[in-house]
Amino acid sequence: MSMALVGLAAGMALAFAGYFGGFGAFLLVAALGAVGFVAGKFLDGELDPHDFFRSRDAGNGPRDRTRR
């Protein structure tokens, strides 16, 4: 399935939620869609949980190089 078709389906779902359920339903559908998108990326292996939960003292940030 092409990305244009996925975008069309997501846009139509948000439009229906906004039209029939109001702005609150629109925001709920958008938020749950984002959660589902991130979960799908995790399951596909395109995102690593360590990217979100990395320690600040990992020593690989740009500020760590300037302190030395």
**What's the number of extended β-strand segments?**
0
Structural class based on helices, strands and sheet pairing = mainly alpha
Name the overall outline: flat
Helix segment tally:
2
Top keywords for this entry?
68 residues, mainly alpha, single chain, flat
In short:
With 68 residues, the chain is mostly helical. It has 2 helices and no strands. The protein has a domain at 18-56.
Task: Walk me through this protein's architecture.
The chain is mainly alpha-helical. The protein has a domain of 39 residues. 71% of the residues lie in helices and 0% in strands. The protein contains 2 helices and no strands. The radius of gyration is 18 Å and the shape is flat. The model has no long low-confidence stretch (mean pLDDT 79).
